[in-house]
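Hi, here's the filled form for the chain we discussed.

Project: internal
Contact: R.S.
Residues: 227
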Amino acid sequence: MNASPKKAICLLSGGLDSSTCLALARRDGFACYALSFDYGQRHKFELEAAARIAAHCGVARHLVLQTGLDAFGGSALTADIAVPKARSAGEMAHGIPITYVPARNTIFLSFALAWAEVLESSDIFIGVNALDYSGYPDCRPEFIEAYERMANLATKAGVEGRTRMRIHTPLLSLSKAQIVQLAQELHVPFGLTHSCYDPGADGRPCGQCDACLLRQKGFEEAGIEDR
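And the returned structure, exactly as it came back:
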């Protein structure tokens, strides 16, 4: 008699990285529970992309939670603040940009941790990256390691010793080009994903924000067409 597959919570924004992370978890035999957030971001195209990817990957369940981080503002993604455009690689490599949403990954992982407890899962997947990224403090390995330690102190299952929570970050040390190559190997449908911070009214990417430029760089270096 075959054992049931292990359950995993997969944070899914609808972007290339989180979609690749979900595909990896699925390839590795996990029953995937996708978790997305309507956090007051300036557009909903990424949530539409998340729904498309979740359906394509055949997740066990896809939840979209409302968190309302726009109530705080402080970010170009949640407030009436211009999204930086046409920044050079050097500019993106220094400082924390205004597109950083305060405490976003801390909050998202907290919800993932709660759902994992209910599902009796010990695995959370998040597509953070510490190489080709925009300087966000909550994408660093130090943050993930600290959060994982906290998670095992903060849960009933962890305190009782029934399980050890693990936060999987399979893309953490990959370049964007390597992520693109991996996504192609996993048959991630590029055309279903969405990365742009400031798309047009029809959802077309602006081509000039940090997310667009990093995505373009990754595909060019991988020698793969972004369909």
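Let me know if anything looks off before we file it.
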